[in-house]
């Protein structure tokens, strides 16, 4: 019986070599797009990362945005044995090069210089011959010098010189062969100095092909008819009927490897099938690419990672991918003291969950890395879109499914709440007229200060009882919204609950709905007509540390005091006006705001659609940071969710292309100075970054002096952590030595003294 061995590689690391010590990567390495062989290693790529494993030493190298690899979407890779460079082609024409020293080069020649539309610049394949890299693209072939990484020439090889999709190239006897989408196999003579002229190319075969390699000193091509052929000098002869459309054809010189969705075929030089892999035990794997290195078959799958097995004895499979979450598209993330939780089920702007997701729930800990609670263990709950941690029991979480109901998870115990077990005031399914169709869309989970769990539930019958609560007693209660909304389908975003237990619920059409059952089921609706909202599509809300509600809409930002709900029947929101030179303007004017998170210093992290993330001061008047894909390790400028660890200050950014975190100072203030901690300590010569002093009370006074008492730095904390750049008042780096840190609370009733050693 075949079995799978799991090898755990923790992909969690700081990249000190390039001064990215404030960033961490939490990437998935499961969604493989290509696999490439070398004489002593295997290389694999996902859409946003490349990793390689040495065969002899099992040395693992990972390249992602944390250490400078910033792809658009990787489509193919190639490793040059001669130069020890790895090339990664992208869907937009970007070419990334991992150099022999581990540095990253970014080549934008195709993007900037090839005169074709942007949607015609996809790189389909990379082939090396005689020191040149032949880049097969959707417009033709570009050629690069492998040693210098400089582009040489571009060939447009359509029969009339037009651009045409080239899927793969190869060279035999100094003749280059290119498989095209529309013109069969085109052929050119590399000795011809006029090969840039399309008329110098000829049609070698007018059939329909999807790939081509040189193997056993002859051409081998993969047809669109689900068969593979060798060219015997006069005609093509079938060597393999794979019964499925071929995805990749590769060779390592000794074996021929053909990959389809459900087969990996390995053929020897006599074209005998040595191996036909159709499944990986315990996985419903879909194959994407495969190769062979030193008798080991490496198989990249669509969503399960990279596997290896022996060519001689394919009875045991090893999972080779670095440890990570199930996929890179993370929709919501939540941090508990013991775990970081991630869910993948999403919905469109219109709250449409289709196509339904079946990805389960991931959790991360420092001890065990990433673990998965599988879909089947979660009662097959689909499109799990949000998660909340019980504030009175950190080991108990609830996850909402936008199709199947509400999950309660506590250790190994998992329970599903739906329309069958929550009573007449509980969860409801959308009414379709078909009683056998169950669609229970739950969202917006949040706990109030009394421990009751609130959520929204899409309803389209009766009083539209879309607001639900699971009380601490275990009883369910529903509240109707028919009098306050025109949306009979009840589509709501993540809610916030303030200190007064008022529920602030974003809606797609009706603005912001505020509700408090303790004030005679009072509702207030804030919209563009009566509440100064810039748009009635409210995407997110956040209550800050001074009881101001920050409201993110599809077209801008507003704020309002939560306490006004108690005494008013109508609420009008306020724009934040900032000064830009001589001009006054709205903060985030007309910007689509995806998420807002409040840190321990009451500063706001704000995610903007296609705009990255901003950190602004507590009042919004100062922009402290702006991170984008271009100036930071963010893998995308679309951040679905922001989560802050109030203890460590780590800020998590869940994007549509992977999750990263930033180690800032956004910690919650402590109640006393008994646990003040200084790190790193000592500060060594190769350290690049700031010294952090954590465990502070809010507005604590911090003074740093040298051993003789000379003051070198002074500040007041905002939140629980401050940073020191190891400079004397920001001017010059202090010398080696021991420095005293004097900390006093705002009222001077509490104080402590710490030391830090600096070694230059």
Automatic annotation (TrEMBL):
<feature type="domain" description="PorZ N-terminal beta-propeller">
    <location>
        <begin position="42"/>
        <end position="202"/>
    </location>
</feature>
<dbReference type="InterPro" id="IPR015943">
    <property type="entry name" value="WD40/YVTN_repeat-like_dom_sf"/>
</dbReference>
<feature type="domain" description="Secretion system C-terminal sorting">
    <location>
        <begin position="678"/>
        <end position="758"/>
    </location>
</feature>
<dbReference type="Pfam" id="PF18962">
    <property type="entry name" value="Por_Secre_tail"/>
</dbReference>
<keyword id="KW-0732">Signal</keyword>
<dbReference type="Pfam" id="PF21544">
    <property type="entry name" value="PorZ_N_b_propeller"/>
</dbReference>
<dbReference type="Pfam" id="PF07494">
    <property type="entry name" value="Reg_prop"/>
</dbReference>
<protein>
    <submittedName>
        <fullName>T9SS type A sorting domain-containing protein</fullName>
    </submittedName>
</protein>
<dbReference type="InterPro" id="IPR026444">
    <property type="entry name" value="Secre_tail"/>
</dbReference>
<dbReference type="InterPro" id="IPR048954">
    <property type="entry name" value="PorZ_N"/>
</dbReference>
<dbReference type="InterPro" id="IPR011110">
    <property type="entry name" value="Reg_prop"/>
</dbReference>
């Amino acid at each position: 019986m075949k079995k799978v061995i799991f090898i755990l590689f923790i992909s969690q690391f700081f990249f000190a070599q390039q001064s990215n010590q404030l960033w961490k990567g939490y990437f998935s390495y499961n969604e493989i797009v290509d696999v490439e062989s070398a004489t002593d290693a295997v290389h694999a790529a996902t859409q946003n990362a490349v990793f390689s494993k040495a065969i002899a030493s099992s040395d693992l190298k990972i390249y992602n945005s944390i250490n400078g690899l910033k792809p658009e979407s990787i489509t193919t890779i190639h490793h040059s044995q001669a130069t020890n460079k790895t090339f990664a082609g992208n869907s937009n024409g970007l070419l990334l090069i991992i150099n022999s020293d581990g540095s990253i080069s970014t080549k934008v020649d195709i993007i900037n210089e090839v005169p074709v539309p942007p949607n015609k610049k996809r790189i389909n394949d990379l082939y090396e011959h005689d020191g040149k890299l032949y880049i097969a693209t959707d417009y033709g072939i570009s050629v690069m010098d492998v040693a210098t990484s400089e582009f040489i020439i571009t060939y447009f090889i359509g029969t009339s010189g037009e651009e045409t999709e080239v899927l793969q190239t190869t060279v035999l006897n100094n003749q280059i062969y290119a498989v095209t989408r529309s013109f069969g196999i085109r052929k050119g003579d590399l000795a011809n100095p006029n090969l840039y002229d399309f008329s110098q190319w000829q049609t070698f075969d007018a059939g329909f092909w999807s790939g081509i390699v040189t193997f056993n000193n002859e051409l081998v091509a993969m047809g669109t008819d689900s068969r593979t052929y060798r060219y015997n000098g006069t005609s093509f002869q079938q060597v393999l009927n794979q019964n499925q459309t071929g995805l990749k054809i590769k060779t390592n010189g000794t074996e021929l490897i053909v990959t389809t969705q459900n087969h990996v075929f390995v053929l020897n030089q006599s074209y005998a099938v040595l191996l036909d892999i159709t499944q990986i035990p315990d996985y419903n794997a879909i194959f994407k690419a495969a190769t062979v290195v030193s008798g080991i078959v490496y198989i990249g799958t669509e969503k399960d990672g990279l596997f290896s097995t022996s060519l001689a004895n394919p009875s045991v499979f090893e999972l080779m991918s670095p440890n990570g979450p199930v996929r890179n598209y993370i929709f919501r993330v939540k941090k508990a003291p013991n775990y970081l939780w991630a869910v993948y089920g999403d919905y469109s702007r219109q709250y449409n969950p289709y196509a339904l997701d079946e990805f389960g729930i991931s959790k991360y800990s420092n001890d065990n890395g990433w673990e998965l609670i599988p879909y089947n263990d979660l009662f097959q709950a689909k499109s799990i879109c949000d998660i909340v941690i019980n504030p009175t029991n950190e080991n108990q979480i609830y996850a909402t499914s936008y199709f199947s109901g509400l999950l309660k998870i506590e250790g190994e115990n998992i329970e599903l709440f739906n329309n069958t077990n929550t009573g007449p005031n509980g969860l409801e399914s959308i009414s379709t007229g078909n009683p056998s169709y169950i669609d229970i869309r739950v969202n917006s989970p949040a706990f109030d200060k009394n421990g009751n769990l609130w959520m929204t539930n899409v309803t389209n019958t009766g009083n539209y009882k879309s607001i639900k609560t699971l009380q601490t007693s275990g009883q369910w209660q529903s509240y109707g919204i028919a009098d306050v909304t025109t949306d009979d389908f009840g589509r709501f975003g993540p809610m916030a609950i303030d200190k007064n237990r008022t529920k602030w619920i974003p809606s797609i059409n009706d603005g912001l709905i505020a509700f408090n059952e303790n004030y005679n089921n009072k509702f207030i609706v804030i919209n563009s007509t009566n509440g100064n909202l810039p748009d009635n599509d409210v995407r997110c809300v956040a209550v800050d540390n001074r009881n101001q509600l920050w409201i993110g809409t599809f077209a801008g930002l507003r704020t309002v005091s939560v306490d006004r709900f108690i005494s008013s029947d109508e609420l009008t929101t306020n724009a934040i006006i900032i000064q830009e030179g001589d001009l006054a303007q709205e903060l985030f004017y007309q910007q689509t705001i995806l998420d807002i998170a409040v840190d321990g210093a009451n500063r706001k992290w704000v995610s903007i659609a296609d705009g990255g993330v901003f950190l602004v001061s507590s009042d919004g008047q100062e922009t402290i940071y702006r991170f984008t894909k271009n100036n930071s390790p963010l893998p995308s400028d679309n951040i679905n969710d922001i989560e802050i660890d109030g203890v460590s200050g780590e800020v998590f950014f869940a994007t549509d292309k992977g999750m990263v975190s930033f180690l800032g100072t956004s910690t919650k203030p402590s109640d006393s100075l008994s646990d003040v901690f200084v790190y790193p300590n000592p500060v060594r010569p190769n350290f690049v970054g700031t010294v952090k002093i954590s465990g502070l009370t809010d507005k604590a006074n911090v003074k740093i002096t040298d051993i003789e008492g000379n003051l070198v730095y002074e500040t007041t904390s905002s939140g629980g952590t401050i940073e020191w750049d190891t400079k004397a008042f920001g001017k010059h780096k202090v010398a080696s030595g021991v420095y005293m840190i004097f900390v006093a609370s705002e009222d001077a009733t509490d104080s402590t003294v710490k030391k830090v050693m600096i070694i230059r």
